[in-house]
């Protein structure tokens, strides 16, 4: 199943950029994180400061956003090298269902049945 959002995701993304904050709702957060993940290239390795610099031009707390990208599986962190790599640019339905809070938020928004 493809996860769709019934509102305009691009305008939602732009409004979050204007506020320079992530939404609290985990399902809505995915709209932002997916677009941010696209700023990284698959196969490239990024230093912590590179990731932070990319995010700080958009958000007032880039460390939180970086952490959320890792927590939801968009980026993988290698603590032996202190580097990041792009893992995925979009969550699957299974990813949503494996995270009970994310699943609940997505269900509440009508993104999942």
Keywords:
3-stranded antiparallel sheet; 6 helices; mainly alpha; globular; DUF2087; 113 residues; DUF2087 domain-containing protein; 3 strands
Report on the structure:
This protein is mainly alpha-helical. It is built from six helices and three strands; from the N terminus they run ααβααββαα. A three-stranded antiparallel β-sheet has the order 1-3-2. A hairpin with a 4-residue loop joins strand 2 and strand 3 (83-86). Helix 3 (48-56) crosses helix 4.
Largest sheet: 3 strands, antiparallel
Q: Helicity, in percent?
A: 40-55%
Count of alpha and pi helical runs: 6
Q: Estimate nothing, just give the exact number of structural domains.
A: 1
Give the percentage of residues in beta strands. 5-15%
Q: What separation lies between the terminal Cα atoms?
A: 10 Å
Structural class: mainly alpha
What spatial order of strands do you see in the largest sheet?
1-3-2
Extract low-pLDDT stretches: none
pLDDT averaged over residues: 90
Radius of gyration: 14 Å
Number of strands: 3
Characterize the overall form: globular
| SSE string | HHEHHEEHH
């Amino acid at each position: 199943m493809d996860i769709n959002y019934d509102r305009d995701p691009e305008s939602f993304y732009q409004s979050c950029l204007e506020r320079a904050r992530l939404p609290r709702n985990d399902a809505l957060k995915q709209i932002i994180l997916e677009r941010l993940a696209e700023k990284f290239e698959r196969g490239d390795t990024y230093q912590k400061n590179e990731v932070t610099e990319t995010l700080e031009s958009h958000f007032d707390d880039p460390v939180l956003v970086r952490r959320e990208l890792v927590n939801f599986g968009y980026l993988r962190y290698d603590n032996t090298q202190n580097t990041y790599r792009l893992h995925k640019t979009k969550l699957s339905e299974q990813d949503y269902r494996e995270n009970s809070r994310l699943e609940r938020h997505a269900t509440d928004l009508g993104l999942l049945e």
